């Protein structure tokens, strides 16, 4: 499964990049995230509860960041296990561009799933993944660049 999109944030690239590396901001932004632990600058561990169709599962997993292109670009890879519900692994490439204090975040993500989740059908998985990504970026935007009242 592949996902790609972009979001515009009313914040400078430095703030967006810092937020993408802040475990507390990420925990608040990731739908269903119960815990996010930063083990190092490149290693994170997460516990997330998700409901995909009829399957609800608690996933535990690890994420590894490659920040060699930072702050303009970085990539991440991860894997998670949801017990009987299944497992997932994948990654994403992220680019940040700034113009006049406004940052555009573009991402290309890919994931492979197995177990019960894989039996749900690709359309359900794809639509759920798009919905979760949209929720992440809505949450992220509210923390990083809240709308002015």
Automatic annotation (TrEMBL):
It comes from Roseovarius mucosus. This is Carbon monoxide dehydrogenase subunit G (CoxG). The lineage of its organism: Bacteria, Pseudomonadati, Pseudomonadota, Alphaproteobacteria, Rhodobacterales. It comes from the Bacteria. InterPro entries: CO_DH_gsu, START-like_dom_sf. Transmembrane segments: none annotated. Pfam families: COXG.
